[in-house]
Amino acid sequence: MLLINAGQNPIVVQTRAGNTINVCQCATVYGIFQLADAEDHAKHRFAEPRTGLSGYYNCHGLVFASRRAAIDDFSQIARILKEDGYEVVQPEDLMPGDIAIYYDDTSGEAVHSAFVVSVPHPADPVKPPISVVSKWGNGREYLHKINDCKYSERSTIAFLRIRG
Amino acid sequence: MVQMTQEQLVEIANVYLGANTPFYFFDNLRRTAAVQALARESSAGDLITSANELLAQHPPYPNSILQAFAVLCALSLKPNAVSADYFRNIDLSAFRWGSNFLYYASQYTNNNVRVELTDPTPAPAEVHQDTEVTVRT
Q1: Is A157 helix (H, G, I), strand (E, B) or coil?
Q2: Is the pTM for the entire model greater than 0.90?
Q3: Of A6, A32, A70, the CB nearest to B63
Q4: Mean pLDDT per 10-residue run, chain A (164 residues)?
């Protein structure tokens, strides 16, 4: 049920090192949240929704757990990045498939993550914005420009890749 | 009991809808016009009474739980011994992110972390046409 503690680890998710990641699966929200969802559409009208509402997974669950569960403990994100072998990518070296993590400027916590799906070609004089796919909390997945979301305002973005 | 309008409820529902982590939920809830209004217009005692009533409902209704979290968040904007003591003694472990929420509420209350809203009705986000992002390396 909404906001009721559903307990931890309904399924097992592990890092490459074989350590279990704390995950959860929550109820999908409706009612008043559908009005809130409509607000998102209105505020971010250039963000394209890819899915319906789902509480099964969040942004980190999309990026690190294949949409099977939500990861909402930021210490787990740091562990995944380390044990899976992620390395920082400079913006000029960015490629589709890399991940973007939005770190809150106040707490340093990873408040959002996304898959990079489109980057400007180095020779393109227009330089369109970087596009990403991300899950907005308990809401929908969106295809959106990297700064066109509710998480970019007070955060700093890092790009990472597993090199092998 | 404190009353919230539908508009206020949608505002706080939007925060939960977009929250990937408990910190995001708490920090952004604190910044909403709804929570700021609750803190401005209600005493700590009224907020505590409302929170107790909302959390005591069986079964708990989603809207009531949302309102309870908003009320508790507003209480964290009133740093005093009563608030701090309340946060030390309340149990929110039955709710998702409940323990985390209390931790942040206590930290913000004890450290008197203020949040100033510069615009209670922020304009819709615009698409950024450039590729400049603030990158953390």
Answers
A1: strand
A2: no
A3: A32
A4: 62 94 86 92 94 94 96 92 96 94 93 96 83 96 96 94 88
